Amino acid sequence: MTATSTTDKERIALFPGTFQPFTIGHADIVRRGLDLFDRIIIAVGVNKTKPIGSADDTVAAIRNLYKDEPRVSVEAYSSLTVDYARQCGATFLLRGVRSVKDFEYERDMAEVNSHIAGIETVILFSRPELSAISSTVVRELETFGHDISSFLPQGYKR
Length: 158
Fold this sequence. Notes:
This protein has 158 residues and is an alpha/beta fold. The protein has helices at residues 24-33, 55-65, 81-88, 100-117, 135-143; strands at 12-17, 39-45, 72-77, 92-97, 120-125. The longest helix has 18 residues, at 100-117.
């Protein structure tokens, strides 16, 4: 009989968000996360408080972006994030933070998620040159007619 080490278990991370739109900051978190995890599930949350675009369209656009990366899958979900993580077999949540404000929120969520589901949260800090980019800012720029292509991953079609 051989003992199973924790390294034998596939490390699956769930990267949740509404991704309206999926920015170069999000893509950077996924790229860096692939160095840490065997698989990443990008989970597009259906958030009724942010009725911006279709989750199905977002899923399709992100899937297209990662069509040649078998370790990344993209799904829509509308349940509690930790419940969806369990359903997918993910044992980690992957989160990116840009600021102290983001960090405080994510720390609180990580504590609650650990308490209720025993799931670990791995936080990656955004690279300094990406820290000002948020989906909210990109949407606002687009609303006022600005070209947002430099804030979106190359090949990302909304």
